[in-house]
Design brief:
Blueprint: H1 7-12, E1 16-25, E2 28-37, E3 49-52, H2 60-75, H3 80-93, E4 107-110, H4 112-119, H5 123-134, E5 142-150, E6 156-164, H6 169-180, E7 191-200, E8 210-211, H7 218-223, H8 225-232, E9 240-247, E10 251-259, H9 265-276, E11 289-295
Parallel strand pairs: 8-11
Antiparallel strand pairs: 1-2, 1-7, 3-4, 3-7, 5-6, 5-7, 9-10, 9-11
């Protein structure tokens, strides 16, 4: 991707990278994890995507009538346009949905193969987001779960880190930008939403940050609770999770956050900006410590 990874970084990347896929089902959510060598970072991805249809009141009967009218018009000589339309209809019909139906509250799907074909090429770019930060913070490790909303034209409308234990906003934002640039096939039945993301375990030679529980930073969290709460006002009081690394002298060296609601980028940036300025935390000694706390 135009980035030369230093030998020291490549050595650290001999570790393993786990790809975490969340699937929403009628029975609830389940997680499947596949672990791969970092140098073999192109696994076959499988995800079940459920489509949230747009607003509208079309019924099955009226839709069927519309399809018949379109087919009649196509047979009258719409040429390549009708062929493309019929192909889309056949594709959606094979999944039990019709392209363009917008029934409020109705769910549709994208094929697993279509999701895989869209996400797989992005994996190496996500890896680059991570490795580019290892030189500055070699102890970075963790997973991130992104919620991705796909519009009716297949473009990604927004990407949100629902959960993240990486603890570095720059890495998380870079990955979100990669996913934002993707284009899926046009979904059947409305807009789609899925939760998906990778987990980075670090390299074999990389020393992990010292693990702290939330109690080690709770005094500072309580002291700054008003400022933290102000950050979440723009996210309608949603829950948040903040992961930070504390360096020598008790100073935060990098941090990341996730918020459990849509359109939360400003809230995340606010939280990270607030936490990144913290000093006076317990001193971890010669190597950074990592802690996660939750809000509210």
């Amino acid at each position: 991707m135009g980035t030369v990874v230093p030998t020291s970084t490549r050595e650290r990347l001999r570790g393993r990278v786990a790809i975490v896929v969340w699937s929403a089902t009628a029975q609830g959510r389940r997680m499947r994890t596949r672990t791969h060598n970092a140098t073999e970072f192109l696994p076959t991805m499988f995800a079940t995507i459920f489509v949230i249809a747009g607003c509208g009141g079309s019924t099955t009967q009226s839709t069927q009538s519309t399809d018949n009218t379109q087919n009649s018009q196509s047979s009258a000589g719409n040429g390549a346009s009708s062929g493309s339309q019929n192909t889309a209809q056949n594709r959606c019909a094979g999944m039990g949905a019709s392209n363009g139906i917008t029934i409020e509250g109705q769910l549709g799907t994208l094929r697993q193969s279509e999701v895989s074909a869209t996400l797989n090429p992005a994996l190496s770019r996500l890896q680059t987001c991570y490795t580019n930060r290892l030189e500055a913070h070699p102890y970075l490790a963790g997973g991130v779960q992104f919620k991705i909303r796909v519009g009716t034209d297949g473009s990604v409308r927004w990407v949100l880190p629902l959960q993240s234990s990486i603890g570095d906003r720059q890495t998380e934002r870079c990955m979100a930008d990669v996913l934002q640039s993707l284009r899926f096939p046009e979904p059947c039945g409305g807009e789609t939403e899925t939760t998906w993301g990778p987990s980075f375990e670090g390299g074999e030679d990389a020393r992990p940050a010292v693990a702290w529980d939330a109690a080690r930073v709770q005094t500072q969290v309580n002291r700054r609770r008003t400022q933290l709460a102000q950050c979440l006002r723009s996210a309608s009081g949603a829950n948040a999770e903040v992961t930070l690394y504390v360096g020598q002298g008790g100073r935060v060296v990098t941090a990341g956050a996730s918020v459990s609601t849509n359109d939360a980028s400003s809230a995340i940036d606010c939280l990270v900006s607030e936490v990144s300025g913290w000093t006076g935390l317990p001193d971890p000694g010669s190597y950074p410590a990592k802690a996660t706390f939750r809000l509210p």
